[in-house]
Amino acid sequence: MSGLYRRLLRIVLAAVAGIAATAAMVRLVTLNRRRSPSWTLLVAALATGAGVALTAGLVWWAAGPRDHQRRSAMRILALSALFGVTLTLVLARILIGPAVEALPDTQVFLRAYVAVLAASLAVTAGFALIGALSAGALPLTRLGVPPRAGPYRTGVVLAVSGGVLMVPGLLILVGTAVYREGALGGNLHLSVLLGAVAALYGLLAGSLMGLLTVRVGQVWRPALAGGLGAGLGGVVCGLLFPLLGVSSVIRSGWGFVLIVAALIAVIHLGWGLSVRRAMTRILQLGERRGRPLQVASRVQVNVVATVALAVLAAVLGLTRTLGEFVTSRPVNPAPLRVTQPANMDATAFCPEPSGVLERAVWQVTTRNDRPDLSCQNRVYPLIRMPGPSAAAEEAVPAAALAAEQAAESPDPAAASGFDDVAALVRSARREVLFTTMQWEEGPLNPGQTLARALAGLYAQVKSNPTAYPQGMDVRLTLGNFPVLSTFEWGAEVWGALRDLTAAGVPLSDPALGWRVQLGNYVGTFPHSHVKLLVIDGELLLGAGFNYGYGHFPRGHPSGRGDNLFDLGLVTRGPVAQDGVTVFEDLWTRSKVVECDDEPNAANPQRGCRLGARGVRGGPPEVRDAEPAGTQRVFSLYRREGFTEADQAVVAVLEAARQSVDLLQVNFSMDVGCIVALLNPALCTDRDRLPYMTALLDALGRGVRVRLMTDAGGLGGIENRIALAYLGREMSKRSIPASRFEARWFPTPLHAKAILVDGQMLVVGSMNLHYSSWTQGPLGLAEYDLATTAPGVVREFAGIYRTSWPQSGNIVLPPFLTETGVGQP
User: Fold this and answer.
1) N or C, which end of the chain has less CB nearby within 10 Å?
2) How is residue 739 annotated by DSSP?
């Protein structure tokens, strides 16, 4: 064996020994299952750092002290990439399992977050080793870098670059691939994607390498070279992978690993050779001028190192905040406490429904001796967003409607469906119960329409107190919506208090019997997604829309309207008492705002705080079930420990015999199916939500199913994955593709509605999404109304009939499916 091959064998053995030692150290520190996951990851990070240093030292020792200049730079860079990928795989295998298993099964989001942290640590360590071993391929000693400092500096550079850009780079690749329908297919498209992400990595790594080795004035050379070299490597991979049939190889686990290793090796090779050339050019310029002006000063290196440490500390602080943010805090899975109407004996005569669909839902809603409040109701036209609609004109007395219209903006562009809700509020005689998930803050926000309506209601009570002899009770609670920009839960409750105060709504006026209470749901993962309004225990609204700007029309004076389409169903009658039950359940799961005095509009949080949980109550005179019509309406609620709505939706889909028309912003599998972006085969039957099973069974019975859904955002990606799975499963079951059609809704969509057999309509807040269908303690609180009222069924069918020809055909990315699902 020649000396060259003996040295190569020593290098490989040294790298294997170092990686094995690193794996053993990390494995030892993860054996203690009693240690918290955060401490496990911290100790594992320290062990990993020591292991990377050991591995780099062993490899340099095996290479020989005088061999660094003679060894092929290309071979060094390629082997470095191979060893780094190996270390990443070993650490990921060791770290992710123990870190995740140390957390309760109910902490789904926290487990996913810890898994991402563990994966990030493994990737960062792998890139650190790649950098440390690559030092010998760069002319660092000629630039004045001490021999022992070279592996440290290159290791830090690639660890920071690889670790920082891992998640955004993956998101860029995945998101663009799905939208342009070219992931692992379409040579030019994939080459552009990989080239752009690789160039970003190379630019960052080259900039850091330059800052740690040469003067600031010359940093642009390794930065530009790194970006061009890495980007060229990405482009080459993007051009070659489709030609080599990568789309079939990547569907296996080891095939995916092989492709990733090859990609990293080629990109790193392009980066290393280009940066090496740039540094050599800097040396040549210095030699030509006769003075080595290119070497970075000690001050520059120290400043860069200090800034890097500061950034790392900030990232660690953000990581801790993010960990706290994603922690699941269920409220209480106790059974639902049902409020019996005061005159229940007088209304306990609802006959059992005879229709197949009504009976399917009725059998769910009357379990455990729950009162049947589904009959003797009246249903009004749908509230449509961005609106306006005819619901308020029929549901609200003329005087209250006129008062609300007088208070509205004279600008026709300001009109919206929120005005219809405001008119319902103005019609109250004794009580207003309201909940929504989101109350978006800012000038001319939708919540201000509700605040103005309450101010108008207060003015009515004040000007004519004899018409309100028992006063007015108002309770509002928000859903604890997360504010992602600040990683806070429940901050919007203070915006709602600000809008109420600015509109002149007092929290209390004892002389008039006026009382307003504001609460915030206490659960996080799950929070409350319910949108509900109950007026006087008689009038009920179940809706899908939040109080966010998107539901305004595009010409709205706020400048933030987006024509976001959504629906709400309004009914009057006994079923409203079930709405009271739902609100009271949410209220007891909310913390109520307590203030020392009337809040100040400029700073409502001063002197106010979230206090104790809400207490059931309300005026007894509005707790009777009052008949108002002849139509059936079913109240469907779900939250942790109570899944009535899940069961009812599945029951009505199982009862379908002719058709199912879905208008749904979301159409997803379980959360784990997001990995289908990397390997569609990983999205399997175990990820199928109950509604999807019911739809597949219906399709198998010959039911025709149509879907209009949304193409945008993360939901659009998840929708594509679910459609691909549905197509594969239909093909497996030999179900004709013509039975299912799917299209993109023609405008931005937020609705959640189902029409079954042209007879039963389900409208509300419950998405066909894993966040609404998780069994056990983690699913969101949701609320739907289901009805067979002919008028509103015809109205929705008309919306569907009008929108269908305007909707766009869905063509799924070829890497997800080849079945053509969604095409007529």
Assistant:
1) N
2) G
What is the Cα gyration radius of the chain? Answer: 31
Give the SS3 label for residue 216.
helix
Q: How far is CA 51 from the centre of its chain?
A: 36
DSSP codes of every residue in 40-52: HHHHHHHHHHHHH
Question: Smallest Cα–Cα separation from 249: which of 234, 235, 262?
Answer: 262
CA distance 182 to 506: 57
The one-letter code for the residue type at 223 is A
The tens digit of pLDDT for each residue in 220-249 reads 999 999 999 999 988 888 777 766 665 555
Residue 228 to residue 267: CA distance in whole angstroms? 10
pLDDT digits (tens, 9 = 90+) for 444-492: 999 999 999 999 999 999 999 999 999 999 999 999 998 877 778 888 9
Q: Are 164 and 204 in contact (CB under 8 A)?
A: yes
Phi-psi category of 192—alpha, beta or left, where left has phi over 0 and alpha has psi -120 to 50? alpha
C-alpha–C-alpha distance, residues 574 and 590, integer Å: 25
* Contact (CB, 8 A) for 382 and 568: yes
Say what the pTM is: 0.82
526 preceded by a cis bond (ω within 30 of 0) = yes
Distant-in-sequence, close-in-space partners of 117: CB < 8 Å, separation ≥ 6: 41, 99, 319
Hunting for tokens 């629906």 — which residue is that?
567
Each residue's pLDDT tens digit, 714-770: 778 889 999 999 999 999 999 999 999 999 999 999 999 999 999 999 999 999 999
| 429, 536 Cβ separation under 8 angstroms | yes
Count CB neighbours of 612 within 10 A: 8
Paired strand residues for 35 = none
As a whole number of angstroms, the distance between CA 276 and CA 501 comes to 64
Q: Which value, to the nearest 10 degrees, does the dihedral of the CA atoms of residues 784, 786, 790, 794 take? A: 50
Q: How many CA atoms lie within 13 A of 806 on its CB side?
A: 9
Q: What are the backbone angles phi and psi of residue 585, rounded to the nearest 5°?
A: -65, -45
How far, in Å, CA of 607 to CA of 605, rounded? Answer: 6
Distance CA 27, CA 33 (A): 12
CA distance 104 to 116: 16
Three-state DSSP string of 649-666: HHHHHHCCCCEEEEEECC
Q: Comparing 350 with 819, which gets the higher pLDDT? A: 350
Q: How far apart are CA 483 and CA 170, in angstroms?
A: 24
672 Cβ neighbours under 8 A, 6+ residues apart: 682, 683, 687
Residue 805 to residues 310, 744, 746, 759, Cα–Cα distance (Å): 56, 11, 9, 22
Instruction: Tell me if the bond preceding 386 is cis, omega within 30° of 0.
Output: yes
Q: What is the DSSP string of 434-479?
A: EEES-B--STT-THHHHHHHHHHHHHHHHH-GGG-TT-EEEEEEE-
Determine the Cα–Cα distance for residues 381 and 300; give it in Å rounded to an integer: 70
